[in-house]
Each structure stands twice: as C-alpha cells, then as structure tokens.
Amino acid sequence: MASTMERDAVALHSTGGRVDPSDIAIGVVIGRTSEFFDFFVYAIASVIVFPRLLFPGVDPLTGTLYSFGIFALAFIARPFGTALFLAVDRSQGRGAKLTMALFLMGTCTVAIAFLPAYGQIGVSAVWLLALARIGQGLAWGGAWDGLAPLLAMNAPESRRGWYAMLPQLGAPLGLIVASVLFAFFAGNLSTEDFYSWGWRYPFFVAFAINVVALFARLRMAVTPEYEALFERGDLQPAPVIETVRAEGPGIAIGAFAPLATFALFHMVTVFPLSWVYLFTREGATRFLMIEALGAAVGIGAIIASGTIADQVGRRTLLGASAVAIAVFSGFAPQLLSIGVVGETIFMLLGFVLLGISFGQSSGAVASLFANRYRYTASALTNDLAWLFGAGFAPFVALFLSSHFGLLSAGAYLLSGAVCTLLALRLNKRLEMAGG
Fold first, then answer.
1. What average pLDDT values come out for the chain (435 residues) when binned by 10 residues?
2. CB neighbourhood size of 338 (10 A)
C-alpha cells in the first residue's frame, strides 16, 4: 500500500503520458548533478576551509588529513543509509523514501553552512561536522532512485552505451559549478571575509539545488507510468540481508570492477587540489578554474564513451580504460610538481581518461543480478564501489605523496587498475550490449 505521501506525490507529478528513455535521462542527469554538486562543495571545503576552521592547532598537512578522515565518513555511512531507506521504500513507497532522504541531505548541508569554528566552541565543532557528514552519507544511500538501471534497460539495445553515459554527466557538471562558485568567493573576498562567511554560500546553493532536484526526481520515480516500468523491470526493493546472501559474489565483483575509475575520480578532483594548495605557492582560485576546465573536457570524454562503448562493448572499454589508467599512474602524478603547465596537463589528461572510463561505470552491474534482487543489489554495489574506490582515496593519496613522493600516489592508483582488471576477468557477465 502506498503511503499518503506517496499518493500525494503521484497526484502532483503524474502526467499520464508515455515514458521515453530521453525523459528518464533528463531526470537522471538532474539528480546526479545535484548529488555531485553537494559532493564537490564539501570536497573543496575539506581542502581549503575545514583544516583552518576546525584544526588550527596543527600544521596544514595534518589538518587536511584530519579533514579527509571526516570526508570518508559519508562513504562508510552510505551502505547503512541504503539499508535504512530501502526499508522505508518497502513500507512507504519510493516517493516517501526520496523525499525523506533529500530532506536529510538538505538539513545536513545547511547545518554545515552554519558550522561554528573551533575557536568558538572547541572540539564540538569537529563532532558537529562529523555528524553532518554521516547524515550526508545516510542520505546519499537513501537517494538511490533506481533510474540508472531503469534507463539502461529501457534504452535501445544498439545505443545502451550512449544512454549509460548520461547519468555520469552529473559529475563534471557538479564539479564545474562548485569550482566556479568557490573560485568566485575565494578570489573576490578578503581572506578574513572568505573564512568568516564567504565559504558558506555554496552550501546554501547546494540546498536550493536539492529542492529543485527533488521535484525532478519525484516526477521520474513515483508516477504510474514510471512505476509500471520499475515493476516490469523487477526494480523493486528486496531485503538487504536476503539480497547479500543471494547475490554476494556478484555484488563484490561489481564493486571492484570500477575501482580504477573511482580511484582516478578522486586523484583528479580532490587530491590534486590538496597537493597544490599545501605544497605550492599557488592559491586555490586559479587551480579551481583549472579543475573547471578539466571537468569541461571530461564532459566531452564522457559523451565520447557512449559512442565508443556501442562500437566495441562496455566490458572491452572498461578493461582498456583500466590499462590506460595504469599507464597514467606511472608518470602523471609527477606533473603536479612542475608548475601550472604540468598541473594543467595532468588535469586534462586525467579528465579524458576519467570521462572515458567513468562514462560506462554506471548501469553495467544491473544485468548481473536476478530480477528479484536487481534494485537492491545495484544500490549496494554502487555504495561499495564508492567506498572501496573513492572513500579513502584523498586521505591515502595525500598521506603517501607527502611522505614518499608523488610516485607513491601513482602506485596507489595502479593498484585500483589492477583490481579492475582482475574483477573483469573473474566475471564476464559484466559484458553488456555486445561487449
């Protein structure tokens, strides 16, 4: 039985029209852009704001490592959020689940915007940030809407690679907006004003974007037309424990298959910002604009991945991307130590590789699972892939590079590429659409 909230959402958003894959794609892109904007707003602040705001008693490197430790809490909390909100989904409906999850996300994001400094309330400020970060992780788990596998199953068979890349456009779009916003405030305010109030504005913007995205996603997830598609594709929530028992090996392999991609994700977004900010004389503003430029190149690479995957197959593309990432790991991180030109080359090359591989990392796991467990198993696989591939990447890469040089960060990235190749070899069911 649908809850009152679910019925109200259906009445508000139903259009009575036929569902087209392009309509699903629009909802997916809007939702992912919102999620990744939240993600990057926090990530940028974890480098240029929180170490100074919350850890003034330690050196900048140690403060940034502490900040990255808190950053990882969301990835640890995310699978628990998935389990919690899937229970809400089963009892109250998908619309209620999404509304509650995005309300929690908005509340935590605004709470961070009002976060006091260490100098005002002491260590309590650190605990408040950690609590808000855990809340964000729970909300991310609950925000899983199943639209990505739904899109993959309803796309034309000859263009599944193309439609699979569309959800991934949200990442570079979110990074561009977040980077430009922080660059604007950091570049146009005095240091005192920026650390007093300027850094808080992007978090308010994130809250506003969440509200818009909520309505877009409800439009896609709770109307009768879409509900019929979810039911036809067996995209209904199953109990987590039952799903893990039935699909455990597939979930594990699916989580490690995109490891190279997700490790690279943070190696070209969060980590280089921290390295440049800590170990060069360059300010954050210029590098944030380099990141925005790299993300724009990444959009083109993601789009290209759709065409390439439809020609050669997704599994082949993921494997070739992992090999390319392994090669990249052997020389590219050292480029960060040779100035603006090296930083720009690193970012552009990195985003080309990231776009090609990341563009096909979504939706590739849905076909691994039995119909009854596909919805829940896909959500858990997504959570674990981010946890193992990205959750600790900024911390590990910064710790290694600060103690053993940039080459060690490349070795860390190489390990992710090796894991991807092993996972692809172990499970050829990852192949989709002619791969």
1. 47 48 72 87 95 95 97 95 90 85 89 94 96 95 75 69 81 93 93 94 88 75 64 73 88 83 89 92 88 94 89 83 91 87 92 90 64 84 87 92 91 89 70 40
2. 11
CA diameter of the chain: 61
pLDDT of residue 221: 64
Structure-block tokens of residue 91:
């009892």
Q: How far is CA 331 from CA 310, 342, 351, in A?
A: 30, 11, 15
Cα 168 to Cα 149: distance, rounded to the nearest angstrom? 13
Contacts of 160 by beta carbon, 8 Å cutoff, 6+ apart: 152, 309, 310, 314, 363, 432, 433
CA 171/CA 358 separation, integer angstroms: 9
Q: At what angle do helices 374-386 and 240-256 cross, to 10 degrees?
A: 50
Contacts of 252 (CB under 8 A, 6+ apart): 384
Give me the DSSP letters along 257-277: TTHHHHHHHHHTTHHHHHHHH
Decide if 272 contacts 325 (C-beta within 8 A). no
Between the alpha carbon of residue 353 and those of residues 36, 168, 173, 286, 323, the distances in Å are 19, 14, 17, 22, 10
Tokens at 297, concatenated: 């190149």
CA distance 98 to 109: 16
- Cβ partners under 8 Å of residue 72, min gap 6: 391, 392, 395
DSSP assignment letter at 355 = H
Cα 132 from Cα 4, distance rounded (Å): 29
Amino acid at 402: S
- Give Cβ neighbours of residue 42 (< 8 Å, ≥ 6 apart): 71, 74, 112, 133, 136
- What pLDDT is recorded for position 5? 46
Tokens of 401: 């590079």
Q: Is 345 exposed, middle or buried (0-12, 13-18, 19+ CB in 10 A)?
A: middle
Predicted TM-score (pTM) of this structure: 0.88
Which one, of 294, 276, 282, 428, lies nearest residue 353 by Cα?
Answer: 294
What values do phi and psi take at 68, rounded to 5? -65, -30
